[in-house]
Amino acid sequence: MAPLEAKQGSVSDSLSKKSYLTRLQHFSFAGVFALSIFSISICLGLIYPIVTIVLKSDAMGKRSDLVVGVFSALNSLAMMTGSVLGVRVMSRFGTFPTYFAAVMVDVVLIIALYFTIGHIFVWLLIYCLFGFISSIPWVVAEIWLNTIHNEKYRAMCIGLYTTLLGTGLALGPLLLSIFNPLHFPVYLICAICGSLNPVILTLVASTAPDSESSPISFRGVWSALKLCPLFPFVAVFFGGIHVIHDNLMIAYSLDMGLTQAVAGQLLSVMLIGNIIFQIPYSIILKVIGTRNMLFSVLLILIFSSALIMLGYYLLFLTTTHHFPSKGIQWYVAHEIIDHILHGAMVLYGAAVMGSYSLPVVWVGSGYPASMYGPATTLYLFCTQLGGVMIPFCLGFAMKILPQLLYICIIGGGMFMLALCAVYFIFSGGRLQIRFISDMDSDMESICTEDGEMETALLGISPEESLV
């Protein structure tokens, strides 16, 4: 264990960076981060559908859905591994150098994908390496955000960050209607958008947290798990929910008899929900707190999923022989059902993006600065684990009955509601439980009624508390 003086220095550095920022500076830094994530999210919004389209094309021998699934699963497994090692790399080489190098390597790998089209095993290797490397900037960026922004501004700033993240992810697929995924220009656009990300972040490179202020070890991750045992369960569930719409929602729409155009339209409507609700989410989160926001997101997810199931079923009836005629009543019913389904998709999209931003805020609000690294690693690892397990299980369930997709989502949401309720009953309504961190025996974490963290460090006054 490092000497206490060293620990106090690194933590104090993180505290001072939070304390001297004005309101304008907080939102200026948030704007730079949001702009940088917008550029790289366009890149990611392009590359993932490109991989699926190219694998299904003649150039790759029209591979089956199984091959596409294998690519997706192995990429997620590579991201899980990268999320565990990302903070260790940051601790060794520094925050901004690690971020810059990881993004530049990803840019090179994107170009390499184009030049290796037709070589399936080389593509798989490059795609897995891309997943491994791309997880490192996410770990670093979320530690960076939580370190810079204090409790007063964190939710709003992360809301701006996730708003432009959702916008970029939605714009990426739209570019595929203009560019051929088998031609070089689309890969060049991906590379340019990816390269802009670290270049933009050079504007705030001086605010990068000390690479030693958030040490990472497996013991530290275990400490983060013990501090809040509920957190990994929420991360696994939300991780699965967050990636379902990438492929299973389209498959569900087609199984219910809708055309590809209608299925794509509904997915676009859901992505709109991803975008427009992030700032309102952050405002509400600041008022009601993380615990109540967790329940709200789960309730919105359950309610919107039930509405989507109902809307799909009624829309299916109006487009088949089950509806008696196609007179004025048919058109009125069809329009009402269509609007209900679109509204439910917007709400579902809000819940999906809320499932990403809420745990990020949770890390900053519920853990001391010295545990941002382990907590972020735990979060991203569990998110990727859910992203592998849940879609895989739901895919098998949909082969039995397509409607099981939303039945399982509703059931999972209800289970999480019950689990959260039981946890908060035993924790006295707090996000964390009281314990002495195994990672730092000099720090005792004490939870207040509203779930915020107060910490007492030897040699640090109460005015310098971590939150």
TrEMBL record:
<keyword id="KW-0812">Transmembrane</keyword>
<keyword id="KW-1133">Transmembrane helix</keyword>
<feature type="transmembrane region" description="Helical">
    <location>
        <begin position="27"/>
        <end position="54"/>
    </location>
</feature>
<feature type="transmembrane region" description="Helical">
    <location>
        <begin position="185"/>
        <end position="208"/>
    </location>
</feature>
<dbReference type="InterPro" id="IPR011701">
    <property type="entry name" value="MFS"/>
</dbReference>
<feature type="transmembrane region" description="Helical">
    <location>
        <begin position="261"/>
        <end position="281"/>
    </location>
</feature>
<keyword id="KW-0472">Membrane</keyword>
<feature type="transmembrane region" description="Helical">
    <location>
        <begin position="220"/>
        <end position="241"/>
    </location>
</feature>
<dbReference type="Pfam" id="PF07690">
    <property type="entry name" value="MFS_1"/>
</dbReference>
<feature type="transmembrane region" description="Helical">
    <location>
        <begin position="66"/>
        <end position="87"/>
    </location>
</feature>
<dbReference type="InterPro" id="IPR036259">
    <property type="entry name" value="MFS_trans_sf"/>
</dbReference>
<feature type="transmembrane region" description="Helical">
    <location>
        <begin position="376"/>
        <end position="398"/>
    </location>
</feature>
<feature type="transmembrane region" description="Helical">
    <location>
        <begin position="99"/>
        <end position="117"/>
    </location>
</feature>
<feature type="transmembrane region" description="Helical">
    <location>
        <begin position="293"/>
        <end position="315"/>
    </location>
</feature>
<feature type="transmembrane region" description="Helical">
    <location>
        <begin position="123"/>
        <end position="145"/>
    </location>
</feature>
<protein>
    <submittedName>
        <fullName>Major facilitator superfamily</fullName>
    </submittedName>
</protein>
<dbReference type="GO" id="GO:0022857">
    <property type="term" value="F:transmembrane transporter activity"/>
</dbReference>
<feature type="transmembrane region" description="Helical">
    <location>
        <begin position="404"/>
        <end position="426"/>
    </location>
</feature>
<dbReference type="GO" id="GO:0005886">
    <property type="term" value="C:plasma membrane"/>
</dbReference>
<feature type="transmembrane region" description="Helical">
    <location>
        <begin position="340"/>
        <end position="364"/>
    </location>
</feature>
<feature type="transmembrane region" description="Helical">
    <location>
        <begin position="157"/>
        <end position="179"/>
    </location>
</feature>
